[in-house]
Task: structure prediction
Amino acid sequence: MLGRTFSPGFRLDLFHKDMGIIQAAAREKGVTTLLGSLVAQIIASLVARGDGELDHSAMIRIVDELSK
Result:
């Protein structure tokens, strides 16, 4: 993250899929996942804009953009 190099270790595409599974399971059980929902939204926005091939550490990009 510090070096802003985001070569894939665990790609955002895969993280997005996994977060969908987690969110669905939580809804099914009636469990609220406040931070999980926020992370899922961040990941979904990165994937939607074409960053799905980057490592999950690329989530810092959203933090950077919102901090300007």
Notes: The CA atoms of residues 6 and 14 lie 15 Å apart. The chain has a mean pLDDT of 90. The radius of gyration is 13 Å.
